[in-house]
From TrEMBL:
PANTHER family hit by this protein: ALPHA_BETA-HYDROLASES SUPERFAMILY PROTEIN, HYDROLASE
InterPro entries: AB_hydrolase_1, AB_hydrolase_fold
SUPFAM superfamilies in UniProt: alpha/beta-Hydrolases
Sequence ranges assigned to domain AB hydrolase-1 in this UniProt record: 74-387
Any single GO CC term annotated in Swiss-Prot or TrEMBL for this entry: chloroplast envelope
Protein name as annotated: AB hydrolase-1 domain-containing protein
Entries under Gene3D superfamilies matching the protein: alpha/beta hydrolase
Length: 410
């Protein structure tokens, strides 16, 4: 009786987990794969002259700017939980206005890029931001270009900006869409004038000390004060070191838990419960999220090892955030010298528009645009408006502008 009972199939977001396959099996006709540091990176390239089945009639952009070529290809970087699919409808129009090639690739742990085992003691963790940064620069090389325009969405903006800092001479411009970069609240330039009067040497008249003993006593106090300061600095260093050690231990414990069988089960449960809901929540109007869109976002859940790769990506983010070799990204934004466009949806529930606006103020001279009635995915939800804004930005930066509509933030 009990033996005849059928085993219940495990599903995550409607995807049968007993029938997982290699990424190449799920490839589209226009899919390409490139080997980089032992990882098969899935990507797509769109040229202005190539037909695109998913164009859906987005040809309303004027041809009047075709002669004003940017001469720079574009590399598109998706956000967390997304893939090349999220750029599907925008690639052809972007190739058209740039008169150049547009390339989008799946970062490791997402899309159809292979899911390598990071326990191979590789010098470069495939799930790290550093890997994605170097892969981005490698793809610029593959396009035979000296420079490229980097377009990042959400967490992909972190990769785009870090790629700029890694090789600023390779980046013609940055376009940050709903950037998941926390802008600092304080614009700290607190230059305290060290001239807070250094105890003036008193002249004999102002010196009310009747006896030289007080001078000796003052020197002793000064020595003791300096000694106390040094002790305080040492104690502060010890406490800080202990805090960092405890923080490191906490991160390691969390990483071990995430990698455990329970951690994997929890990851599957979270994706199953909130995966498709998160996609709908990313749109201003969830009713516009078609079955085609949901299938595009859940397709990578059919890839072998998708859950473990997602855990490794999370662990890599935890590990990277503790490395203090560089200041936080929010503190380096003012150093960006290339043209920057920031685009956000006014109804973004994941990365609020006010953060993007603050980010634009942190990057001097950047252009800032808000797309009305759009959520976290303006490049999907409002394709024509998004491409039109990018077109105007290109005119402003790479050609003559007749009617500058972009808001330049100083």
């Amino acid at each position: 009786m009990f033996g005849s009972r059928q085993k219940q199939k495990l599903q995550v977001a409607g995807i049968d987990q007993d029938e997982l396959v290699d990424p190449s099996v799920l490839a589209d006709p226009d899919s390409c794969f490139l080997e980089f540091n032992g990882v098969r990176v899935h990507h797509k390239v769109c040229d202005a002259g190539q037909p695109n089945a998913s164009q859906e009639g987005i040809d309303s952009l004027s041809h009047s700017h075709q002669s004003k070529r940017t001469n720079f290809p574009m590399v598109l970087l998706h956000g967390f939980g997304a893939s090349v699919f999220s750029w599907d409808r925008a690639m052809k129009p972007l190739a058209k206005i740039s008169c150049s090639k547009v390339l989008a690739f799946d970062r490791p742990a997402f899309g159809l890029t292979s899911r390598p085992n990071p326990v191979d003691n590789r010098a470069l963790n495939p799930y790290s931001t550093t890997f994605s940064v170097l892969a981005t620069l490698h793809f610029i090389d593959s396009l035979a270009a000296d420079k490229a325009v980097l377009v990042g969405h959400s967490a992909g903006c972190v990769v785009a900006v870090e790629a700029y800092f890694e090789a600023p001479e390779r980046v013609a411009a940055l376009i940050l869409v709903a950037p998941a970069i926390v802008a600092s609240f304080t614009s700290r330039k607190v230059n305290q004038s060290a001239g807070k009067s250094q105890t003036d040497k008193r002249n004999p008249e102002s010196s009310s000390s009747p006896c030289k003993k007080w001078n000796v006593f003052g020197k002793i106090l000064s020595i003791l004060s300096n000694f106390a300061k040094q002790v305080a600095q040492i104690l502060t260093g010890i406490v800080k070191g202990m805090g960092e050690m405890l923080n490191s231990l906490y991160r390691k414990a969390l990483a071990s838990f995430l990698r455990s069988a329970i951690g994997l089960v929890l990851m599957r449960m979270v994706i199953s419960k909130f995966g498709t809901a998160a996609v709908r929540n990313s749109w201003y109007d969830p009713k516009q999220v078609t079955e085609h869109v949901l299938q595009g976002y859940t397709k990578p859940l059919r890839v072998k090892g998708w859950d473990r790769a997602l855990v490794e990506h999370t662990v890599a983010m935890l590990t990277e955030s503790k490395l203090g070799s560089k200041p936080p990204l929010s503190q380096r934004l003012s150093e960006i010298a290339c043209p920057v466009l920031i685009v956000t949806g006014d109804k973004d529930r994941l990365v609020p528009a006010w953060n993007s606006e603050r980010l634009s103020r942190a990057i001097t001279g950047s252009c800032y645009e808000v797309i009305k009635n759009s959520g976290h995915l303006p490049h999907e939800e409002r394709v024509e408006e998004f491409v039109s804004i990018v077109d105007m930005f290109f005119q402003k930066v790479f050609g003559e502008v007749q009617e500058p509509h972009l808001q330049v933030v100083s």
